[in-house]
Amino acid sequence: DGQPVPWASSMLGTESMRSVVSLRHRLSIPRSFVRQQVRCCSAATPTTQTVKQMASNGDLAAEVEALRKQVAALETNIKQKEAQLNTVWPYSRSYGRTSIKTVLGADDGGKSMIGKSLRVGGWVKTGREAGAGAFAFLEVNDGSCFESIQVMVTKEVAEAVGGLRKIVPSGTSVLVEGELAATPEGTKQAVELKATSIAHIGECDAGTYPMAKKKTSYEFLREKMHLRPRTNTIGAVARIRNALAFATHSFFQQNGFLYVHTPIITASDCEGAGEMFQVTTLMSKAEQAAGAAPAVSEAELASLRARASEQGEKVKAAKAAAAADKGNAELAAASKAAIDSLMKIKDELAKAEEAARVVGGLRRTPEGKIDYKDDFFGRPAFLTVSGQLQGEFYACALSNIYTFGPTFRAEMSYTGRHLAEFWMIEPEIAFCDLKDDMQCAEDYVRFCCKFLLDNCRQDLEFVAKMIDSSAIERLEQVAHTPFKRVTYTEAIELLEKAVAGGKKFEYPVSWGIDLATEHERFLTEDIFKQPVIVYNYPKDIKAFYMKLNEDGKTVAAMDVLVPKVGELIGGSQREDRYDVLKQRIEAQGMDIAPYEPYLDIRKYGSVPHSGFGLGFERLILFATGLENIREVIPFPRWPGNAQC
């Protein structure tokens, strides 16, 4: 479509791809805007002169990266200048509120705002009276950044809202107006707010407020999901999650992908595992019929069947008599009457049998299965386990797409690695083979790591201090280290060698196994000490849609393994041959009907294409080092739990 895609290089050829790359198009900004930014950022690093030298050397990729840095520097500078012009958050003008990030997130820590009158609003993290009750210090946080701003409130100012004791309890919400002042030398923050008035207070009963100042367990916080965002950990995770979501959209949008919304309700099982939540309106009918007597008893059915059988014998006799005396009109009429009577009994019996098949309010088929004709969709429907199949439909028309949305799996798992509801990122790319697919996955992960390091430093520093001391180091390593690539067979050989050398695994190692987390982490943490992409897996442990390799034993599948987590991404080149795909669906005993549209795109203009799926929560686990996946999604769902 006129836009070169980096992960189609093996299809286009390197020279062909370079010949059509346009700097301005790659940046997705007007030519005039590029020139203006180069002029405005002449003092930035790298300089405009450096960029020209790069261009003269033909290093277009470096030129693009250099200009991107200049654009980013200019945008940051503009935002800071705009913040200084008007500190009030645009959608809180009625309260005149300035976000704490605007103050503490400035390059100088807010020093340039000293002397300004501001209003900040948020929730008291900690509060304490000082000076024998003459004033109080509040640590106020509004969620815009990790840091809280210190607010000093005098006894006189607090009198208007009931005194200092009203505002110091943790959890109290306040909107405070005051003057930004410098703090004494050596203080953690450069500025503090000296309150002149309190415009709002939302009291908090310290005696019953469950979010105590002391550290509480994650299990306890899960019982208070509506309040746990106020804790440092969950607040930091929320901002990291937000940054990774933004990075995800930025990466794919910058690289020519279209964002496609795939359905949450589907009739197909993408993974073929059968662990799906069913969507139905039949249960309400079943509840209405609960306790009701059967519409037709077995005795009534037996009686109707006996009548039908008896009438059938009468019909035979009447037909025989009429056939023996064909000229007898009376016998012919009697035969017709007998047949009519039999048809009425059979019709009555059919209705009775249909009524008898309603068991517990649910209609059954003659085979005893649930009849979905009365259901909302007229067929079995489920919550999706993946948007991949629908994503492929759009990729086979629009070339490069990605989905980013919730998926569901009814897996009765209570481990810290599984959720019933989770988010998936699933790109699909036309004219893309497994090699291109692996490169796209690597570029995406490294982009996300760099984005976090550049934009969530305070939250990451908290994570490194309180959760996982290696978190920042791990992100740095992944962001700046190319991923290692090994085949599945090579990975198994390395693991077998480790076992021979004395390494013990809980799960035995042999060719054909599905690698367990312990195997994956050993490969990436002990053997290679860097992210690893394992590819060409045995076909029997992978999904039906993955392209069968020429050896007939393996498929063009890949998994991205990272330290701390193990598998982060699973992807493959999709099977684009109609006959092979159909055979694989049938071989797994799956009903072919729901997959007819999926087969159609192989029948009508099939194209080599690939894609991958990334569990968003696992990416956050990797970034934060948290052990339990329930801490990295706002409202976790697992067997027996669906709070809030």
The span between the termini is 45 Å
How confident is the prediction overall: mean pLDDT?
88
Strand content: 15-25%
Q: Compute the gyration radius: what is it?
A: 34 Å
* Amount of helix: 40-55%
**Order of neighbouring strands in the sheet with most strands:** 6-12-13-18-17-16-15-14
The total beta strand count reads: 18
Give an overview in words.
By secondary structure, the chain is an alpha+beta fold. The chain is 42% helix and 18% strand. The strands form 4 sheets. An 8-stranded mixed sheet has the order 6-12-13-18-17-16-15-14. Strands 1-2-3-5-4 form a 5-stranded mixed β-barrel. It has a 3-stranded antiparallel sheet with strand order 7-11-8, with no helix packed on it. Helix 11 (232-254) packs across helix 23, helix 13 (298-324) runs antiparallel to helix 14 and helix 16 packs across helix 18. It starts with 8 loop residues before the first helix and ends in a 20-residue tail after the last helix.
Keywords:
alpha+beta, eight-stranded mixed beta sheet, 18% strand, single chain, 644 residues
Mind sketching the topology for me?
Layout: H1 9-12, H2 14-20, H3 23-27, H4 31-40, H5 48-56, H6 60-85, H7 100-104, E1 117-130, E2 135-141, E3 149-154, H8 155-158, H9 164-167, E4 173-182, E5 191-202, H10 218-223, H11 232-254, E6 258-259, E7 265-266, E8 278-279, H12 282-288, H13 298-324, H14 329-356, E9 358-359, E10 362-363, E11 381-383, H15 388-398, E12 400-408, E13 421-430, H16 434-455, H17 457-466, H18 471-480, E14 484-487, H19 488-500, H20 517-527, E15 532-538, E16 554-562, E17 566-573, H21 578-587, H22 596-603, E18 609-615, H23 616-624
Parallel strand pairs: 3-5, 6-12, 14-15
Antiparallel strand pairs: 1-2, 1-4, 2-3, 4-5, 7-11, 8-11, 9-10, 12-13, 13-18, 15-16, 16-17, 17-18
